[in-house]
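Researcher: Good morning. I'm working through a list of sequences from a screen, and I'd like to move beyond sequence-only analysis. For each chain I'm collecting a predicted structure so we can compare shapes side by side. This is the next one on the list. No need for commentary yet; just the structure.
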Amino acid sequence: MNYIENKNADSIVFNIKEKDTAELHFGIGTWSDAEIRKQVNSLKEIDIENADFKKVLKSKRKMEEFLTKHKEGGIGWKTKIIIEIE
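Model: Good morning. Structure tokens for this chain:
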């Protein structure tokens, strides 16, 4: 995986190859609805794309719905958000 972070810009880019994964870690904790809302409030948009697919989420409501829908983990502990492009 090729990871690019431009400290002077407002973007983080992951160039993910087929069957590869990328992870963002925000410290110890879980992805509660309140934590997702807090993180979404700091985002401008979420772009997910590959050669055949592009999804752009711009509204806070849609970003929150998308991230909440994709959170996973054990019982009571939603510790990760998994996004797959099929």
